[in-house]
TrEMBL record:
Its EC number is 1.17.99.6. InterPro entries: 4Fe4S_Fe-S-bd, 4Fe4S_Fe_S_CS, QueG, QueG_DUF1730. It holds the Pfam family QueG_DUF1730. It is found in: Cytoplasm. Binds 2 [4Fe-4S] clusters per monomer. The active site is at D142. Its cofactor is cob(II)alamin; [4Fe-4S] cluster. Keywords: 4Fe-4S, Cobalamin, Cobalt, Cytoplasm, Iron, Iron-sulfur, Metal-binding, Oxidoreductase, Queuosine biosynthesis, tRNA processing. Monomer. This is Epoxyqueuosine reductase. It catalyses: epoxyqueuosine(34) in tRNA + AH2 = queuosine(34) in tRNA + A + H2O. PROSITE patterns: 4FE4S_FER_1, 4FE4S_FER_2.
């Protein structure tokens, strides 16, 4: 990072940064230091317990995630930003109660947030440069080993709830986070206070019991991990618990009382595209790879690829009520070139009483 510029009034600069952030469309800006020692202990214990599953990069990055100056030398402060994403979409609970429909996590219904948020953080940094001259910074949007929720909590953007997501008292938890690591010695904000109290709605609602205790998530059981991060077969014993969730899971957020105050996003890019908030399982299962790539262009969904898309939907179809249409759709993929897809299709068919599929799924 370049040498620190001389700034007469750091308090005013911090106020200006928050004002510029609001002008750029951020819903809140907070500032914190770099001491994440408590969060680091939690991270290391989580890794030692193997709760990161196959996300080897979590262990590979080690304490670089919890020590900002180790990731970006010279970092003194972190400017943390949040941006609401709750879209005007089909009612999530209704989709979850409609087993023929495909449930996709609300954050993934629109365009991929990474580029939008990162571009906006860069715009904020340039606005700061216009005011004070060159300074050291680096923008992150889930793009490097960053403990973004711990930083956001310390920056006063909310508190980490029992489901391990960040919650804001006025707007709930439906928002994205991004950071500017900087060498500016800005005044820091007071950390967020915890308001979970005795509530355990998220623990009770988790379909797979992935929230193994308050503030303790076992990713190996989490539907978001199983449908997005896991590359191989979904464990057989967990498949019936996925229901019709084909990309991510929002159950813990949907039941959170604080999300009664959720605010609709002002970003058009986060609105549903290609009817993904009302899409049917059979329709999505029929997409060939070219169609999948076309319908998921600019979407976070594309990262799982067509093979895992079919894997996930096969499980959901296995959980759907038996019908001729469901069986026909599955049989059409029973000789798919991917062994991963074939195995999940065979399992799904076995759920609908296909004796030949039962033998193949064993």
């Amino acid at each position: 990072m370049p040498a620190n510029p001389v700034i007469d009034d750091l308090d005013q600069l911090a106020r200006d940064i928050k004002s510029w952030g609001a002008e750029l469309g951020f819903d809140q800006i907070g500032i914190t230091g770099t001491d994440l020692s408590d969060a680091e202990t939690h991270l290391l214990n989580w890794l030692a317990a193997g709760r990161h599953g196959e996300m080897d990069y979590m262990a590979r990055h080690g304490t670089k995630r919890s020590r900002p100056a180790a990731l970006e030398p010279g970092t003194l402060r972190v400017i943390s930003a949040r941006l609401n994403y709750w879209p005007e979409a089909a009612d999530a609970d209704s989709v979850l109660q409609s087993p023929a429909q495909a449930f996709i996590s609300r954050y993934a219904l629109g365009r991929d947030y990474h580029k939008l948020l990162r571009k906006r953080l860069q715009q904020l940094a340039r606005r700061i440069e216009q005011a004070i001259g060159p300074f050291g910074y680096r923008a992150f949007t889930d793009s490097a080993p960053v403990l973004e929720k711990a930083l956001a909590e310390q920056a006063g953007l909310g508190w980490i709830g029992k489901h391990t997501n960040l919650i804001h008292k006025q707007t709930g938890s439906w928002f994205f986070l991004g950071e500017l690591y900087t060498d500016l010695p800005l005044p820091v904000d007071a950390p967020g206070d915890n308001h979970c109290g005795t509530c355990r709605s998220c623990l009770d609602a988790c379909p797979t019991g992935a929230i193994v205790g308050p503030y303790e998530l076992d990713a190996r059981l989490c539907i978001s991990y199983l449908t997005i991060e896991l590359h191989g077969p979904i464990p057989v014993e967990l498949r019936p618990l996925l229901g019709n969730r084909i990309y991510g899971c929002d159950d813990c957020q949907l039941v959170c009382p604080w999300n009664r105050f959720a605010q609709l996003t002002a970003e058009d890019d986060f609105q549903p595209r290609h009817g993904l908030d009302t899409a049917g399982l059979i329709e999505c299962f029929g997409w060939d790879e070219a169609t999948f790539l076309d319908r998921t262009e600019g979407s976070a969904i594309r990262r799982i690829g067509h093979e895992r898309w079919l894997r996930n939907i096969a499980v959901a179809l296995g959980n759907a009520p038996t019908s001729a249409e469901v069986i026909t759709a599955l049989q059409a993929r029973s000789d798919h070139s991917s062994e991963l897809v074939r195995e999940h299709v065979a399992w799904a068919l076995s759920r609908h009483g296909d004796n030949n599929a039962q033998d193949a799924a064993r």
